[in-house]
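Per reviewer request, we include the raw input and output of the structure prediction for the construct analysed in the revised manuscript.
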Amino acid sequence: MAKNELLTLRDYAKKVGTTHQTVSKAIKDGKIINGFNEASQTVDPAVADLEWGFGFAQQRAIKQVGKPGAAEIGGEVMTDFTGEISNTAKSAELYRIKLYYEARKVQLAVQEAEGRLIDKDETYRQLFGWGLALKNELSSLPDRILDLLQSADRAEAKLIFDKEIHRVLEIMAGYDADFDQGNS
């Protein structure tokens, strides 16, 4: 697309990923002012994107949290920005990156509020606690059954050992590591 190429309302709507009625409403509501040429009924996409298009796409992404393609602007998937921002980066590109990260923060906040995200450090702490309790139970096992094993024959000793391991596993199955985030 040429630098100053103007688009019809329908073409701009297609670029942004909406209907021409939505673009017309944005113009009528004063959301696109400098990006719309009333005489020729055309839209300058670079200006209109800054005035309305990127914000529109961000709001759509927020509404579609968790849905595939939630972070798309005009069919272009906005992926995580991992490169460096050069001195020649255009303000529109920087604005697009900023909007993406703002939408991503909102998306993560919604997922956290819905309980779809968990705190990694808290989970590791709880798993460590469970593992420590298991280690302590298994470590104390010989002290609990040593006297019984000394007077038992091989088959009886195996039965005693199996029962004690089963008891430890039953205890650990009921171990409350406080896995509910709300209670931590």
